[in-house]
Amino acid sequence: DSFIFDKIRFEEDACIGFLSDIHCGSDRHLGRSFERFLEWINSDDETAKKIKYIFIIGDNVDGVGIFPGQENVLKLKSMKEQYSLLASYLKNVPRGITIFMCPGQHDAVRVAEPQPIIGKQYAEELHAIENLILVTNPCLIKLLEKNNRIEKEFSVLMYHGASIHSFINDIKELRDMKAHRCPAKAVRHMLKRRHLAPMHGDVVYIPNADFDPLVIHEVPHILCTGEVHRLDIENYNGTLIITGSCWQAQTPFEEKVGNIPDPAKFPVFNLKTGELKIFDFEVEEEVSKGH
């Protein structure tokens, strides 16, 4: 099980924000909603000006050949075009904000976990963005504050969340409550078991004889995921769980399986006060049209 007893609060009034499942290139990608978010983050809004870090938790593009017939639902047909659109967005994030980005199953990396950083072959433009740090999936990020010779450390564990479906399918209480609607309930089980994907064979992974990168060795202050396209918040024994929203309208596949996304939400956590705010950038007519 996992417990965290030290509530870390920074002296600086700084915030961190969370994005996931942007799905650039999809014909359901919510470009206008994302541009509304970019306008806000460049505005004089009190919260926007406090943001120092943004975590982007995978499925940054829609990909190519991820599922049969995908070419019929792509607006941008190549990985390079999709990453070019993503880079054009991220170039508009203020330079004072550091962005951490990990891949998901739709990105141009292997599906097997742990996933390496997104490479230059398709995403050279991302590598040129100075305030963007590309990281692996999963990845533990430690934010440090030094003040009067006292060092404070706040940890954020990023994991895209491919295993969430397996938790929901394999654990009866999650199946019964239809936990795809409240995915943070499934993420609680990752912390409880101290492992991001403990079900052998349910998630494709790369075996490592010396070290299992999916074990939660250090309990994080925040565990953030993507994958399910629904913003959900939980607190488990001192760890804040955030499952990310998305920037894609409901796809035909989601409609078929009954998954109702909750798009264009941006959660912001204040490192000084511990307050969490949710901002909504949904352009309603864009979401209802589905493209």
What does this structure look like?
It is a single chain. By secondary structure, this protein is of the alpha/beta class. The chain has helices spanning 31-41, 46-50, 79-90, 120-127, 164-170, 172-176, 184-193, 252-257, 284-289, and strands at residues 15-19, 51-57, 98-102, 132-134, 139-147, 150-158, 222-225, 232-236, 239-243, 265-270, 276-280. The strands form two sheets. It has a six-stranded mixed sheet. It has a five-stranded mixed sheet with strand order 5-6-7-9-8, covered by helices on one side. The radius of gyration is 18 Å and the shape is globular. The relative contact order is 0.20. The mean pLDDT is 95.
Gist?
With 291 residues, the protein is an alpha/beta fold.
Keywords:
single chain, 291 residues, alpha/beta, six-stranded mixed β-sheet, five-stranded mixed β-sheet, 22% strand, globular
List the helices and strands and how they pair.
Blueprint: E1 15-19, H1 31-41, H2 46-50, E2 51-57, H3 79-90, E3 98-102, H4 120-127, E4 132-134, E5 139-147, E6 150-158, H5 164-170, H6 172-176, H7 184-193, E7 222-225, E8 232-236, E9 239-243, H8 252-257, E10 265-270, E11 276-280, H9 284-289
Parallel strand pairs: 1-2, 2-3, 3-4, 6-7, 7-9
Antiparallel strand pairs: 1-10, 5-6, 8-9, 10-11
Helix pairs in contact: 3-4
Using only CA atoms, what is the Rg? 18 Å
What order do the SSEs take from the amino end to the carboxyl end, as H and E?
A: EHHEHEHEEEHHHEEEHEEH
Global morphology: globular
Q: What's the story with the biggest beta sheet?
A: 6 strands, mixed
Range of helix content: 10-25%
Estimate what percentage of residues fall within beta strands: 15-25%
Q: Can you give the mean pLDDT?
A: 95
Number of strands: 11
Query: Which structural class is indicated by helix and strand composition?
Result: alpha/beta
Spans of at least 5 consecutive residues whose pLDDT stays below 50 are none
The quaternary state of the protein chains shown equals single chain
* Physical arrangement of strands within the biggest beta sheet: 4-3-2-1-10-11
